[in-house]
C-alpha cells in the first residue's frame, strides 16, 4: 500500500517539511515529495491497485461535503452526512468535450444564425416562460392564503355574531351593546384559556365557541402546513438561506425539485392562513428559484415530465441551472414585493461573486416579465383604463403630505440613523434568541418528525391563544376617524379594514385587534399610511397599543421561525418594525406638539420597518430598493439608505444576519464573499490548508483499479498524474464520468499492452498512437445530468478487470491549479470568484501535492491549518526577515 | 543569441506543433518545447546575456500595451504608443511581501483592535471624505455653470431690452409690440447669419447686437472650455468611456490626476454655459472618480501635496485605487442625478467582473454621503423644516394625475415597448453618425491642437447661430396657461421659466425658445411635467414645435460630442428623447380625443427620454434606477424597464453603445464582460493565443544581464525560470521591482559563485543557503507607487555588471498560470474575472511556453490566432473524433 502515495514521507505535512528548509521553502518541499513519492516508487513497480494517500492524523477531511463530495447513495459511504455537494460550474475540458462543442457549432458554422445565437434565443424564451409561470404561481399562492384566511374569519365571525344574536334575545335594547357585553364575558372565558372548553355557563357559549373555532382553524391550518413539510422536509422555513447557498455553489439535495415547490407553495398558504407570524415572501422567492430550475431543466421526477425530446434540453448543467435560478430568485422577489429591480439586486447581493453583465440583464428581463404578468393579472378589469396604484405597490403608496414639501426635514435624518441603530439592536437580539432556540430545537426536536409536528401544534395553540387574548386585554374602544372626505381611497379602504373587536362596528375599533385580526400586509399598510388624527393620546394607533402589540408579536415571531412550516421572515420583521417605528414617531411628538408634518408617523413606521428588517437580515442595497418599490415614493431613498446602513453596522457588532446564522447552524460549507479575517490577519499558504488525501489515477488505467478506487472512497474528482514524468498533473477525471465509462464498458483489450511494460516504461508511451480512442461521446456522459450512474450501478465482471481504460480523451487537461506557495487570500479569491469545485495544489514541477475543496477554505479549517503550521511558519519568518 | 530561447524550434507556433502529434496534442507540443529549448541549451552554456524569444513573423505584439506594458518614458521604446498599461490588482506574493504583511499584522496581533480593523476604519473614513468632497465639487460646478449662464443671458437680455427701448421711442404705442416688431427685424438680420455683422441699418441694431453678443458669449465660453482641454487633453469628452476602461483594469495615463479634475470641472461649467448641447453629468461622474483617487492616494503632483506622513497612505496600490474609484464613480452619479442607488448600480454595471459585496457597501456608503451632503447644502435654508421635493429630484417629481390611479394603463405598456424600439433606432443612428464623424475627426483634426481649437470655435458659432435662428423661424406666439391656481409649485415655476422670445412677456411665449434659451435641466422638466392645456393644436408644446426642436437639436448633439470640450451625453439624449416621446404622446392623442389621462404627455416624454438615452448608452438596470430616482415616482418602474430593455435590444442589432464605440476608436484594449463570440463559436486554446515572445530571467542573475534586458524591451513582467530543472516556472518579477533593485544596488559580490559553476551546475544550488538574503524591503519598493523608478534612472557601473542579483526573495512564486490546452473561454474568464495583468501559459511540466496579456484576448487577436491555427486545428478534430 505504500506504492503510489503522494508526499510519500509518512505523516509529514507541508509546513513541517518547509520548516527545516531554506527560505525557498516550497521548492524544497516539492523536491521532497518528488523524491519520496514517485521516483522512489518507480522501481517498486505497480503492486498497489491505486494510490492511497497518507492519512494525516489531524485531518479534518472525510466527513462528506465539498469537492470531495460524498454521494449519499454510495454504498461505501455511510449515510451520516447531509449529502451536500458543490456545483460544478466549469465544464470538464476534455477532448471529447471539445469534439462535442465543435460538432454543435459545426452545423451552423458560417451562417448568420449561429448555434450560439440559437441558444441565446432559447435562453431568453425560457427566461420569459419562467417569469410568467412564477407570476401565476405567486398569484395562486396569494389567492389560496386569502381564501383560507377568509374562510377562517368568516366562520369565526359567524359564531361571534351568533353569540351576539343569542345575547340580544335577553337584552333587546341594542344588538351592538349586547354584542359588546357578550364579548366582555368572552373575555373571561378566553382568559380561562384552553382548559375552559370542557364546561362553562351557557350565556357565553357563542364567544367561547368563536375562540375554540379560532384556535381550531388556526391549528388545523398549521397542522396541514406542517404535514407538507413532513412530506418534503426541505420546504420548511423561508428558503432564503438555501437560495444563498445555492447561488454560493452548493447543491442542496431536493432543493429545486417540483415536489418542494408544491409543498412550499401550498404549505405557506396554510401557514399564513394559520395566523402564525410568518410571511409568504421568502417562500415565494424560493418558489421562483424552483420554477426557474424546473423550467430550464425540463425534467421532473415528481411529475415524470422530461422534455429531452425538445430543443430546450441543452441547459442541463450546473452553470446554466445556477444562472436560471438566479433569474428565478429575482422573479420571486419581484412577485413577492412587486419589486423587480429589488429582485435583481437581491440576486446580485446574494450571488455577487460570479455575477456577469449578461446575467444581470436576464434577471432583469425575468423580473420584468413576472411583474408585467402580475400587473396584467391583477388589473384584468382595468386593462384599458388607469390601473389602481394600490395594486402596484405591495405596501401601499406613500405620498407627499403637503404638496411639494418632503415628508421629513434634513435634521430628522439624524433620528433615522438612531432608529436604524435601535433596529440593528432589536435585530441582533432577535437573531441571538432565534439562534439559541434553533440550537435547542436541533438537539431536542428536529431529529423526530413526530416531535416536529407536535411542536407546530403546540406553538400554533399558543399563538392563537395569545392572538385572541391580546385584543381582549386591550380594554379600549377607539373612535373611527370621522372627517375622511379628503382622504385618499387607500386610506379609506384602510379605515374599513379596522376591526371592531369588542366595539361598535362602524363607529369604533379595537386598535390591537386591527393589527392582529387582519392579514399582515394590511396591518403593515395601516401602520405605514394612517395619518394621525386628534391629539397625542388618541392617535389612530396609540403608543400603548403599538407597544402592547410589538412586544408579544416579535417574541412570537422569534419563537415561530424554525418550526416545521414554510415561513418567511420579511413580513413579521416589517410588521413589528413598523409598530416600533411608529412608536418612535410618537415619542418625538412629545417633543413637538404641533402635530404637523414633523415626525410623520407613517414615515417613522417605514423607517422602523426597514431598521428591524435590516437588523435581522443585514441586506442593504437590495432591501432599500425593495422597500422603495413596495412603497412607491422615491423621496425616501436617502432616509432608507441611512437607516439600513446604520442597522447593518450596529447589528454586525453583535452577530451575523439571521440567514447566515441558519446557514452555519445547518453546517453548510458556505463561502463568504470575502476572505475570512483569520486569513487576512495571518499568513497562510495554499500548501497549509490543502488536503493531502489525494487519490490519483494514471492516464491509462486498468478498469479494475478504477472500479476499486471508486468503491473505496467518495471523492468527486480524481487527479490524473503522469507516472512517467515523475507524477506531474496530467488532468482530472470526475466521478460521474468514470462511472459512466465503467458502466458503458469503454475498455480496450487487456492485451493492448503488457503489465510490466506499463509499469516500467510508462503506460502512455507504450500505447502511443494506438491509444484506445474515445468510445463514449461527451453528450452520452452528460445526458444523465443531474443523476449520473453511480458506482453501485456498475457491474464489474472479472474478465473486465484487466481491461485498459484510456482516460486521456476524457481528462480535463487544464484544471485550475494553484502553486503551494500561493497565499490563502489569492487561493480563496480564485476559488470563490470562479465558483470552483476543487483546486489542485501543485509544486513548481506541476506535481500534485494536494487538493483544496470548499471545506478547506471555511474559517474553521483555516484556523485549524494555522494552528497546525504556525510554529514552523513563524520560525521561518523570523529567521529570514525580522 | 540562440541560447535560452523559449520554444527553440524557430518560428513554429503552438498549433503547428500540435498538428502532427497524437490526440494529446498539448503533451507532445510541450515535450517539443522542452527538448528544443532548455535541454538543448544546457550544454551550450551561458553565452547569451538574456533569453531572447523568437520573433514570430505573424506576431501582433510589440506595439505597446497590455501586460507587456510599454512605459512611455522608457528611452528605448519610441513614444508612438498611447502609453496605456494594465492595472496590477494582485500583489506580487514574494517572500519580502509576506514578510511585510507579517510585520504589519504583527504589531497588533492578538489585540481586538487588529491592523485589519484599523485599515477598514481608515477606508470608511476616506470613503466618507470622498463623498463629502464630491458633493462640494458638484455644487461648485453647478453654481459656476449657472452663474456663467445667467451672466450670458443677462447681458443678451439687456441688449434685447435696449433695442426694445430704442424702437419704442419711434413707436410709443406699446413697448411690447415694439419689441416684437424689432425682433421681427432681428429675425431678418439673423437669417443673414454671421456675415451680417459688418453693416446693417441702425433700426435693428439692438436685436442684431443681441445676436452678436449671444454668439460672442457662447463662443468665448466654448473657447475657454477648449483651452482647459488643450492644457489637459484627457479632460475632453464625458469621461464615462474612460471610467469604464479604468474599472476594466486599464490604467489610462493622467486620467485620475487632480489637474484633470480641475480642467474638467471648470471646463464643463464653461461648455455648458456656452449653450452647446452637452451635459455636465458625465464629467461629474469623472470628477467623482478623480476625487476618490486623489483622496485615497493622498499624493498629487499638481499641488505638490503628499500625505505619506499620515496614517492614510497605505492604500497606494492598484487594487485599492480601483475600489476607491468605483466608489467615487458611484458618488459622481449620485451627485449628477441625485441618484445614489443608481450610482452604485452604475459602478456595478460597468465593473461587474470583480465586484465584491464589501465594495458594494462602500460604494453605497459613498453615494449616500454625497447625497446627504448635497441635500444638506441645497436645503441649508430649510434644515429644520420640510425640504422642497424639487430639490430632491433632479428632473422634477412625477405625481399621480388622478388620485390613486396610475398615469398609464396596462395596455399602454405595448406603446412603451414601441417607443423603446424607436428610441433604440434613434440611438443606433446617433451612434453610427457619431462614429463616422469621430473617425473623420481623428484623421483630419485631432492630431493638431490648433485644428481642434478652431473646430470648437466653428462649431460653437454654428450652434449659437442655429440656436438663435430656430426660435426666430418658429413664427408663433403661444398663450401662457391661465388657470393654474390648482397647479403644483413645480408647474408654476416651470411656467415662469417659459421664454417670451418675440412675444408678449407675461402673456405669451415662444415654444422653441423656451426649450433652447433655458438651461437643459429646466427644458427637460418642462417636457416632463407640463400638463396639456387646450385641444391638440394648442398644447403647451405643440407637435410642430417639438419636431422642429428635436431634429436640429439631436443633429447638433451628434456633431458636438467629440470636440475638444468637456461634454456629457446624458442631458442631450434625455432632452431630445423627451421631445421625441412627447411627440409620440401627441400622435396617440389623435387616436383618442378625450384628452384625459390616456397617453399622458409627461409620461411619454419620460419614456422617450429613457428610450433615446438607452438606445445611445445601452445601459439598462442602472439607467432605470437613475431615472426613477431623478423623477421620484416608482409607478414608472415597469414602463421604464420595458422601454430601456427594448431600446437596448433594438440598438444592439445595429451597433454597440456609444461609449463602447469610443473605447474601440481610441484603440484601448478593453475586455468585454463576456467571452467574444468568435471564441464561443470556435475552438481556440490558450496555446494558440499566447504570445511566445517571452523574456525570462534566472532566479539568480547577473545585474548586467538584468540591466540589458530591461533596456532592450518594455515588458512589464518577466517570468523567472529554473534552468536547473529544465526551465520550469519559478515565479515572476515585475519591471518596477527589478528597476528598484538595480537602483538600490541590491547585489551580492560577483565572487559569491563562479560563472562556470553557475551555468553548469545551476546557480541556485551552488548558492544554496548562502543566498543573498533580501537587501530591499517590500515597502521600500512600493513606496514609489505609482511612479516607480525606470531603467533610465538606473546608473549601471561597469564594476556592478558581474554582481549577482538574487531574485528569489522578490519573485512572485505563485503567479496565475494556465495550461496551454485550456480553452479560451476558461482563460478569458480567469483573466477577466480576476482582473489579471498577465497570465503565464505553461505545459504539463510547468515550463513556460508563452504569456497572455490583455491584448491577446481582444477579439481581433483571437480572430488572428484562429486564422493562424485553424487548419491544423480542424484536421486535428476531424481525425480524432468525427
TrEMBL record, chains A, B:
It is a multi-pass membrane protein. Gene3D superfamilies: CBS-domain, Clc chloride channel. GO terms for cellular component: membrane. It is found in: Membrane. InterPro entries: CBS_dom, CBS_dom_sf, Cl-channel/antiporter, Cl-channel_core, ClC. SUPFAM superfamilies: CBS-domain pair (SSF54631), Clc chloride channel (SSF81340). Residues 811-868 form the CBS domain. Its main location: membrane. Keywords: CBS domain, Chloride, Ion transport, Membrane, Repeat, Transmembrane, Transmembrane helix, Transport. The chain crosses the membrane at residues 124-145, 210-231, 324-347, 410-433, 453-474, 545-564, 604-628. Residues 1-39 are annotated as: Disordered. Residues 1-11 have a biased composition (Gly residues). GO terms for molecular function: chloride channel activity. Belongs to the chloride channel (TC 2.A.49) family. This is Chloride channel protein. It comes from Seminavis robusta.
